[in-house]
């Protein structure tokens, strides 16, 4: 006699993707880097206009290097794993994550349900990060906001992950 499909998993495979997919996630990251650099340059220019000698030493290429360094630092700490989609396969009991490197190379990671945990690192309005911790391997960080993940996407991920295992408190994981 065949076993019936478990009622807790109505579909065998559930895939959750970024909602804002007009640009690739890597293109969005580079665009955000350019916008942040531009905003910092405009800010430094405005400060130098109203400056009384404080910014006189920041002339030439040093200003551009400082602004690019600040923008790169901010973009790197809020980059996450550049995740495009997360698929939950309830028959194989695994999560498949498609993510990209900054060189636009696609990688697929398979995380088994067994031994997996997850948490959400709280931050500002768009800095909340959902983090998946496989039993073995590196953590996977899914960013919300500037890289195309909306709050609704993250809520769907949290709902799907809650069916598998309870959420870990964010202070216990690094």
Q: What's the short version?
A:
Helices cover 32% and strands 23% of the residues. It contains three helices and seven strands, in the order E-H-H-E-E-E-E-E-E-H. Helix 1 (25-49) packs across helix 2 (61-77).
Q: Can you tag this structure with a few keywords?
A:
174 residues, alpha+beta, four-stranded antiparallel β-sheet, three-stranded antiparallel β-sheet, 3 helices, 7 strands
SSE arrangement:
Layout: E1 13-17, H1 25-49, H2 61-77, E2 83-89, E3 94-100, E4 106-112, E5 117-121, E6 129-133, E7 140-143, H3 151-164
Antiparallel strand pairs: 1-2, 2-3, 3-4, 5-6, 6-7
Ends distance? 46 Å
Q: Measured on Cα atoms, how large is the radius of gyration?
A: 21 Å
Question: Share of helix among residues?
Answer: 25-40%
How large a portion of the residues is in β-strands, by DSSP E? 15-25%
Overall pLDDT metric: 79
User: Could you tell me the number of beta strands?
Assistant: 7
Query: Which sequence of strands runs across the widest sheet?
Result: 1-2-3-4
Q: Unreliable stretches, pLDDT < 50, 5 or more residues?
A: 1-6
Quaternary form: single chain
Largest sheet: 4 strands, antiparallel
Give a structural overview.
This protein is an alpha+beta fold and 174 residues long. Helices cover 32% and strands 23% of the residues. A hairpin with a 4-residue loop joins β2 and β3. α1 crosses α2. It is elongated, with a radius of gyration of 21 Å. The N terminus is likely disordered.
């Amino acid at each position: 006699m065949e076993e019936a499909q478990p009622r807790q998993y109505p579909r065998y495979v559930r895939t959750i993707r970024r909602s804002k997919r007009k640009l690739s996630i890597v293109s969005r990251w580079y665009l955000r880097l350019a916008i942040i650099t531009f905003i910092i340059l405009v800010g430094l220019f405005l400060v130098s206009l109203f400056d009384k000698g404080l910014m006189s030493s920041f002339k030439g290429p040093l200003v551009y290097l400082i602004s690019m360094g600040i923008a790169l630092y901010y973009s790197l700490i809020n980059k996450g794993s550049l995740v495009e989609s997360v698929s939950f396969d309830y028959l194989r009991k695994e999560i498949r994550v498609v993510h990209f490197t900054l060189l636009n190379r696609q990688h697929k990671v398979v995380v088994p349900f067994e031994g997996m945990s997850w948490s959400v690192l709280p931050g500002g309005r768009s800095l909340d990060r959902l983090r998946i911790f496989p039993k073995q391997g590196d953590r996977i960080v899914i960013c919300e906001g500037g890289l195309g993940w909306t709050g609704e996407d993250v809520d769907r991920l949290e709902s799907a992950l809650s069916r598998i295992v309870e959420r870990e408190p964010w202070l216990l994981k690094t």
